[in-house]
Amino acid sequence: MPSQSPDSAPPAAPPRLMSLDALRGFDMFWIAGGVAIYRAFTAGTQNEWLKAFQVQLQHVEWEGFHFLDLIFPLFLFLIGVAIPYSLSKRLARGDSRWQIYRRILPRVAMLIFFGMMVNGNLLSLNPEKFCITYSVLQMLALGYLVACVLYLHLKPRLQVLATAALLLGYWALQTFVPVPGHGAGVYQPGALFGDWLNQQILGEWEAPKWRIGWILGISTHASTAMLGVLAGQLLRSGRGNAAKVLTLILLGVGCLAAGWFWSYSFPIIKVRWTSTYVLWAGGWSFLLLALFYLMIDVWQIRRWAFPLVVIGANSIFVYLSWTLCNAAYKAVADRFLIGLKQYTGAWYDGISWTGAFLVMWLLLWYMYRNKTFLRV
Question: pTM for the whole thing?
Fold first, then answer.
């Protein structure tokens, strides 16, 4: 990895990576409409290829990995990629670490607050129903926070060691610490050390649906973000484009190989964000970043990516608005498209979800054109 430390940022800031926004947009597309559109259009299909991808658009219940299980870690990986760009810029203009933390901590708090809106019953306005629980936005925030701390205080070689320590520490605790009533190294729901730790700390404050050991999981979520940080430092380095792409590919293949071999003793489990899951998802993230960087920023083949860039530039807004308001988007689309139902029959559900996505995309395009971005 590049040997440059955070304190010695280059004098000329590298240009913003369009590939980063495009890949983030690709990732968010599947959350904001892509899955619903595909499922609606292929419902009842007898085509084996289409049915196979239907399976890939379902989360694995416990051990294993499907395409849909890549969406969350890829987004966290991309947050990590952006860290060296944003923080080095602030260091280069003379901001102290304390000034940077004054910017980071409110962002983390805001993401946790939004996560409570989604999963913590905050919108019920009833304190008796509030719960301190897992949410995607909360884990993005906490993974981002740990990655920022490591980036600001460690040189790249030590960042690599810290990331490895987080992965190994998580594995050791889950594997060797005995859990009352279960023993050690039982990789089943409720039998893992992380599950027991959450119960001891939060008790009934944790929503029953989300008792998934997320407190210990902060370490592996941070590891996913740190893989992105290492990729971001590589892309900011003075290496040639060919060397950058090749290194990203090698890192991707290396992570996939390490995750695959390790999974024979420590399973890939998305709902516990195991160390092997970090490596497996990280490997695919490195490879996708290599592909998008090569096509968009090296070969300058960009027109096709514009719809994705519009999504990726406002990704937090996309997540919140689709999670909370997708029924409203669909209602607006149906207002204009409902007349097609009599002619399209079973296809109409797919048309309707496509319309819902387009309603949201047009709003995003208007925001993008007017440089209105939800920055958290």
Answer: 0.90
